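Support request from a user on the community tier.

User writes: "When I paste my structure tokens into the form, the page sometimes reloads and wipes my input. The last time it worked, I copied everything first. Here is what I submitted, just in case something in the input itself triggers the reload:"
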């Protein structure tokens, strides 16, 4: 069958019906194989892009402060710091008027920087009144909460009780204290560099 088209000079021109349809069918026939050939490559590129984005995001997560805080994942390292601070502060914050050198020796080996300055200030006043009062101080660390931990630094909250006994009045007093502590690893030992009463 034909379709009739009127030309500008008034004549008619017949166009076989279905010619346009035949052209579009042929176009689709050549386009589909191309799409099928390109589809795997497009999918591969998309997967690579997703993988790259995932790696970048994972690296961002690993580089955050939380991921670098070994106190959250290193149980052995955290326990080591807790033990070092418990033993160290028990020695540094205990005092016996009959053997004051034990306290200063502990401070010499365990304190440095601002922590040592804080200790020297407190110890000066203690050393003046302790002999007359026959004062004995005993510190007992109750708990150590390690807040942050890296290979060579640690920050912790320390809760302790300090019992003071004066022979002059035979009285004992127990006081609780909280300390913010910063420590640095020096070889195989931890040195307290900041000691702040809270």
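"...and here is what came back when it finally went through:"
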């Amino acid at each position: 069958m034909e379709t009739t088209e009127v030309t500008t000079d008034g004549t008619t021109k017949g166009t076989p019906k279905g010619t346009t349809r035949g052209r579009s069918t042929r176009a689709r026939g050549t386009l589909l194989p191309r799409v099928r050939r390109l589809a795997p490559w497009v999918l591969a590129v998309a997967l690579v892009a997703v993988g790259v984005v995932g790696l970048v995001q994972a690296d961002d997560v690993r580089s955050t402060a939380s991921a670098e805080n070994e106190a959250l994942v290193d149980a052995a390292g955290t326990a080591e710091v807790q033990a070092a601070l418990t033993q160290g502060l028990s020695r540094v914050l205990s005092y016996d008027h009959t053997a004051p050198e034990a306290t200063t020796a502990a401070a010499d080996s365990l304190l440095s920087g601002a922590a040592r300055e804080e200790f020297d200030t407190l110890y000066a006043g203690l050393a003046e009144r302790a002999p007359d009062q026959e004062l004995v101080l005993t510190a007992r660390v109750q708990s150590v909460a390690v807040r942050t931990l890296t290979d060579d630094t640690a920050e912790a909250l320390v809760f302790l009780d300090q019992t003071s006994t004066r022979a002059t009045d035979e009285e004992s007093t127990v006081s609780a204290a909280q300390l913010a502590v910063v420590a640095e690893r020096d070889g195989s030992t931890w040195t307290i560099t900041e000691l702040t009463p809270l």
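Agent notes: The reload is a front-end session timeout and is unrelated to the input. Helices lie at 19-62, 65-68, 75-92, 101-110, 113-133. Residues 15-63 form one domain. Escalated to web team.
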